[in-house]
Each structure stands twice: as structure tokens, then as C-alpha cells.
Amino acid sequence: MVGVAWTGSESDFEDFVSRHGLTFPSLNDEAGAVYERFQIPYQPAFAVVRPDGQVETLLGSAGDDVIDMIIRDAVS
User: Is pTM beyond 0.90 here?
Assistant: First the structure.
């Protein structure tokens, strides 16, 4: 899993990661290239790339249980 932030400066991004104690890899996509590539129009959103390369997206917020289900489904 990789977190991708789309809005804000690098310092805003670093503050967010620190404030929320994020421990997974995260990157700041100020230009929105990742969001454009996966056709994600806004945050929050999730994109799961399946082993076969197929991409599943979920727009909006989701709880841990939903995220776990999406990931389990993607790798099964």
C-alpha cells in the first residue's frame, strides 16, 4: 500500500503524515499525475492494482473493514 496526497505543499504533506502517524509509504503528488493516471477526480479515494494489472477504484472515504475487503478481494 502506498499513500498518495494530491493537494498541498510538501511541508503540508509532511505535517499531515506526521500528525496522523502514517507508517506506510506515502508520496506527495502535487501535480496530480498519479490521480490522473488512475482517473481519480478527488480525495479521498483508493485504487487497488490487481496482480493481473486491472485497477479497481473506490471514491470517498472507507473504513478499515472496507479497505481490507477490497485488498483481500484483489489478491484472491
Answer: no
Q: How far apart are the first and last CA of the chain?
A: 16
Q: At residue 19, what is the residue type?
A: R
What is the DSSP code string of 21-74? T--S-EEE-TT-HHHHHTT--SSSEEEEE-TTS-EEEEES---HHHHHHHHHHH
> Using 50, 70 and 90 to split pLDDT, how confident is the model at 14?
very high
Of 67, 70, 42, nearest to 56 (Cα)?
Answer: 70
Q: What is the pLDDT of residue 33?
A: 92
Domain boundaries, the chain: 1-37, 46-76
Average pLDDT, the chain: 87
